Amino acid sequence: MSKTVEFFFDLGSPATYLAYTQLPQICQQTDSQLIYVPMLLGGVFKATGNASPATIAAKGRYMFQDLDRYAKRYGVPLKFNPHFPINTLMLMRAVTGMQLRRPERFEAFIDCLFRALWVEGRSLGDPATVAAVLSEHGFDPAEILALTADEDVKAALKNNTERAVQRGVFGAPSMFVGDQLFFGQDRLDFVVEALS
């Protein structure tokens, strides 16, 4: 298996959640490897001068209607999170920490957080809610909190974010097949073509 998809992601993006629901199946069908690369979308926005489409009222309304259309097409649940947007710094440090320190539980970890945000509409900007979600899924909130303070974890997330920007990433989700960048969950058909 020499083909890979590098998936640069931040939990706080609903479009990223939709891509996340589709990429494992795409990689299975194309005999490709999915490489998860957590990054901080706020850091990418700051470095590139970009901003969430939700900051423009008309564009934000359209974006959520369009994402809902795609969710129906994919046959996956999607609920607009009333707490959007949220600061994902601690969440993405936790994700990075799990990838580095507990890789065997990494996919279950991001799955429970994506679902909490984009299916259950929970407030993951609230530490008590995060702790509750983690406990419900068999994770130790104290262990996860410790990961977010780990200097190696912080450095890894920062490095991932800087590397994303250097490679031309300006938003999420961003996927690379080789050196080709594909931005947005609505570009997955091009990812499939690049892998085929």
TrEMBL record:
A matching Pfam family: DSBA
EC number(s) recorded for this UniProt protein: 5.99.1.4
Domain DSBA-like thioredoxin span(s) in chain numbering: 4-195
Isomerase as UniProt keyword: yes
Catalytic activity as recorded in UniProt: 2-hydroxychromene-2-carboxylate = (3E)-4-(2-hydroxyphenyl)-2-oxobut-3-enoate
UniProt keyword list: Isomerase
InterPro entries named in the record: DSBA-like_thioredoxin_dom, GST_Kappa/NadH, HCCAis_GSTk, NahD-like, Thioredoxin-like_sf
Domain of life: Bacteria
Molecular function in Gene Ontology: isomerase activity
Enzyme class: isomerase
Keyword 4Fe-4S: no
Signal peptide residues on this chain, from the entry's feature table: none
Family in the record: Belongs to the GST superfamily. NadH family.
Name under which the protein is recorded: 2-hydroxychromene-2-carboxylate isomerase
Organism: Pseudomonas violetae
